[in-house]
Amino acid sequence: MTRPLRLGLLQYPVERPASIPDWGKKLDRWLAEARAQGVDLAVLPEYASVELGAALVGKAPAEEAEELSAMVDAAPAILEEMRAAARRHGLWLQPGTLAMRSGDGKIINRAPLIDPEGRLAFQDKHAMTRFEAERWGVSPGAAPAVFDTPWGRIGISVCYDSEFPEHVRRQVEAGAWLVLVPSCTDTLHGFNRIRISAQARALENQCFVAICATVGEAPWSAALDVNRGLAGVYGPVDRGFAKDGVVTEGRLDAAQWVFAELDPARIESVRRDGAVFNHRDWPQQRFGAAQPAAFA
């Protein structure tokens, strides 16, 4: 039987590191705290490392285009810091996302999952926000993937992707019992879109969905100037789970770890013997186009 997963979600405080090695030291400090709490898998928010932008550009505030260009150029070095940190602390690490150049030269937003030996695989973001598409010029990446881990298969649905049911559904159909949602939102409207979507995905798929957000203000950054949100885990709204489906949540806009013990056996149980069978009944919910109803 697969053992429970000790998950750590970091409400990541946006600060102003002076260099990539300096950023690596910050990551080390937070991961050391997670390891001391027995965390197996640590998760950071989308674009967390973009706080490096001003340092890489060499001025503050950095302009949008030059900040993005500097982050893309530095992505390989930042990724190596992430891999080294996972090895040092013996953790599985989902370190948020990186703006990277794809094989065809486009800029995409990529979420790595790194194992304790430093091996990694990626989930690309597919749906672009207006900021990404219109101002940063970030392009959609690859289709949904799943990752094999010691706790079973998990998925990653980056921020806006989680607002579209099919993205998470494809991962669940491929065996995911947990979906991670690293996010970066600058208003409570944006944060609550992610939170509400995560709860909906957990309900309709009878799975766990975990969100993770950047917090704080960074006037030196074009992309991370304001950051609102929290980290949380949501599950099925059914017997054996909380009445509102909330497993745990942190304090809004606070820098902190949020921890949860997640057992895939609970997901298997509710899918097998829940009050409802959302996961099982999904394939039956196929409709044609809606037509005007006739009044008699």
Explain the overall architecture:
This protein has helices at 20-36, 53-57, 64-89, 130-136, 165-173, 188-205, 264-273, 278-281; strands at 5-13, 41-44, 92-95, 98-101, 107-114, 120-124, 147-149, 152-156, 178-183, 208-217, 226-227, 232-234, 246-249, 256-262. The protein is globular and about 65 Å long. The protein has a single domain (8-272), classed as Carbon-nitrogen hydrolase (Nitrilase/N-carbamoyl-D-aminoacid amidohydrolase, 4-Layer Sandwich). The strands form 2 sheets. Strands 1, 2, 3, 7, 8, 9, 10, 11, 12, 13 and 14 form an 11-stranded mixed β-sheet that branches. Strands 4-5-6 form a 3-stranded antiparallel β-sheet, with helices on one face. Helix 5 (165-173) links the parallel strand 8 and strand 9. Helix 1 packs across helix 3 (64-89) and helix 5 runs parallel beside helix 6 (188-205). With 296 residues, the protein is of the alpha/beta class. The mean pLDDT is 95. The N and C termini lie far apart (58 Å). It has 8 helices and 14 strands. 32% of the residues lie in helices and 25% in strands.
User: So what's the overall shape?
Assistant: globular
Can you summarize the main beta sheet? 11 strands, mixed
Number of strands: 14
Cα separation of the termini: 58 Å
CATH superfamily: Carbon-nitrogen hydrolase
Integer average pLDDT: 95
Query: What is the radius of gyration computed over CA atoms, rounded to a whole number of angstroms?
Result: 19 Å
Number of domains: 1
Instruction: Report the helical percentage.
Output: 25-40%
Proportion in β-strands = 25-35%
Secondary structure tally, helices:
8
| CATH-level-2 architecture | 4-Layer Sandwich
How are helices and strands ordered from N to C?
EHEHHEEEEHEEHEHEEEEEHH
Spans of at least 5 consecutive residues whose pLDDT stays below 50 are none
- CATH fold annotation: Nitrilase/N-carbamoyl-D-aminoacid amidohydrolase
Strand-pairing-aware structural class: alpha/beta
CATH class: Alpha Beta
